[in-house]
């Protein structure tokens, strides 16, 4: 760990983790990614100093979980897996923001490498976008806007507002790595391939030989030349914005049939040709106005959508320097939300 940071207070014995997961039983398993397995578990409590109190008996499956165990998969204990674990541990001990997942502890024991994180009850944004409405209820336009604002504020913090002028480029923003809490507050949960940018390096870039991340979310300049900047995160977030407004993931076959680059390329073309309504989630069009009379700027809630689409389009510009900063993105998304707030106020007094 850099800076000689003392993390002893965050260490959790392996036997405690095995206890609450019944030795990593599938009963408690949430799922797998390329490098991690995720488990839900319960603890008695954790206080403001993040001191955890584990249950003395087995986990109780019918009680709501309070933590997530993020375990490097046994088959991925290679050099890259080790680097990802250390990077994520370092990043999460440096950040403190309401829209970034809270690290509660970690375990490095025997061959195990484990992070203990707060539990986010609604799960991945990607899963939520692909579920049927009758399973989860409608994800309203207002909820979608607030989710996007949460993530935008977290990215702005990473890029410009950290202590000691630290700068973090996440490099892996996508809807799989954005999780929702029980109030639909959104949090960034993945930092395994994130990189620190040297302080006072505004406009500078890192040039990386190994290009990591999911292709359909990847900044074209980074994908082509390994040029990593804050604007690389802006691009990835722009793809997420279009996922949110389309109600489909960026690698949906519908988009891949039109372009190997997925949603971003399709969204750019639709925006430029005035056919963007063709890919907007029908549920949003129904909420904002009839599909047959879908005209942007016709009333405040359509102004909200128009503002959202314009900033989303700017985020996915192919050239890095043509993209807005996250500060601008936050302001425009808040502006989009303000149209809805104004509309509610008008309706209240009519």
UniProtKB/TrEMBL annotation:
Pfam families: PK_Tyr_Ser-Thr. One of its GO terms (molecular function) is transmembrane receptor protein tyrosine kinase activity. Coiled coil: none annotated. InterPro entries: ANXUR1/2-like (IPR045272), Kinase-like_dom_sf (IPR011009), Prot_kinase_dom (IPR000719), Ser-Thr/Tyr_kinase_cat_dom (IPR001245). Residues 24-350 form the Protein kinase domain. GO terms for cellular component: plasma membrane; plasmodesma. PROSITE patterns: PROTEIN_KINASE_DOM. PANTHER family: OS07G0166700 PROTEIN, VASCULAR ENDOTHELIAL GROWTH FACTOR RECEPTOR 2 (VEGFR2)-RELATED. This is Protein kinase domain-containing protein. The lineage of its organism: Eukaryota, Viridiplantae, Streptophyta, Embryophyta, Tracheophyta.
